[in-house]
Amino acid sequence: MSGILVAIDGPAASGKSTTARSVAVRLGYCHLNSGLLYRSIAWCSLRDGWIDAPGRFGPELERLDLTLERRDREFLVLVNGEAAGRGLLTAPETARRASRVAAMPEVRNRVLHVLRVTGEEGGVTCDGRDIGTVVFPAAELKIFLVASAHERARRRILEQGGDPAGPAFYEEVRSLEERDLRDANRSLAPMIPAADAIQIDTTELSPDEVVDRIVALALERGAEPVDECPDFA
Ligand code: DC
Question: Above pLDDT 90, what percent of the chain?
Answer without folding.
Answer: 79
